[in-house]
Amino acid sequence: MTAAGSGSHGAPCTLGGMTTRGSRRSDSDDGLTVGAVASRFGVTVRALHHWDAVGLVLPSLRSTGGHRLYTASDLARLRRVLLYRELDVPLHEIGPLLEAPAEEAAASLLRQRDRLRERTERLRRKTGDLERLIEARRSGPLLSEREQAEVFGERWRPSWNAGARERWGGTEQWAQYAERAAQRGAGDWKEVSEAVEEVHAKLTEAHRASTVPGSERADALAEEHRAAISAYFDCTHAMHVCIARLYTTDPGFTAFLDAVEGGLATWLREVVEANARSHGVCPETASWD
User: Is 286 within the bounds of a domain?
Assistant: First the structure.
């Protein structure tokens, strides 16, 4: 490497094929191009150009062809920038941090530590929420068998969750049910269960009073029943009809309702279908979709 002064020829100071940028001189061998630095440090050329533009990491040299060249000291500063980027220090804070006195820099790092702790706690909570949602997708209510018996009553069978998942697990409604289940504890489910029991009590009373399906009273009860189902997922009138069909075609549903009140299953299906007709849904052709 040869150096030429600004003697009789008036030529600028050169280092090999490089010219100095400002008054700085390179303490590297030949300097590294932007592309070489990007490849070595795993950053994009665009990022390096941006950091140059905002004065965060400036290449000290330029080649005779005008290309940016990074010296060893430039790369040392780049390593520090990348360290703080890895620690999620905001980009606009890194430059001042590198130039700050020791005490001020330490205070800045303490603030960043607190931010990371807060973010870690948020991620911990989100991870827990996600795990609950995954488990609810698999099993429904996130309650032990003992808790389920206490909440839903002695007639409740935990195996019904598996049956429901097998029948409806691929539907949007099961996904909605799981999303709600993931956010509910025993107390929440107790409220849902009590609301269902209250509706069953009203239905039993109406059945014993020979309330006619399609009457104003029967339609009101059908809407209360549909609202109780909607605590699990949004239940349309067509879906309500599809569920009511099971009351007379699925032995498990029939036995459950008739244990509440003899003949309730058949009557409730008629009540639901009559109410659906009043809302423009044909029970004979109603489908889940």
Answer: no
